[in-house]
Design a protein that fits this description.
By secondary structure, the protein is mostly helical. The chain contains five helices and no strands. The termini are far apart.
Amino acid sequence: MDYDADGDRNDEAILPLAGDRILREGSRAGVWDCAAGDRWGYALGYKQAADAIVESVETADNGFADLMVYPAAFLYRQYLELALKEIDTLAAVYLGESEPPRRSHGLMPLLERLERAIKVSGSELSVEHRAASRVVGDWDSLDGGSTAFRYARHANGDVTIPDLPFVGLRTLAAVMGRLSGFLYGARTSLEESLNAKHEAMGEYDP
């Protein structure tokens, strides 16, 4: 599906047009308003895009279905990293700690503060939390640097994933959907705990 310079659908537009610009002068970056700096919003956008790719595979008839594994997996992984960083930030606030500078794309370290926050709250790590940790660990082992599904080769020329196993996109989407539910719950729980903490300290302002 292609669009002309005015944003109207044009299935015959297969070459660049003189008026092509990725952002039209005086317009926003997209059709809908987005909150700049909203890490959770960015995360959800990546997941929704990945879900849309998986859905499109069902009806794809252009011979590119197999190639959709790479962008879908990249988007799911990007969603996971941003969601975990948002949760880690909330956990830092809850624990009264400073958020560390983000110098890597590692995922498992982002769970450590959440686990401490859970224990400080008097709760135990749930079965669901341990299951989520295993999935996060799988991503970290496969793509700890967030490059495996973004690039075909490393800077030195080596293949990023030389032995990529079979990837069932439907299964991947289902696993990420369940993980998303867990992460949403963790974020909501932290927000509620922070509100209760601030309210107890007389700082809550609804």
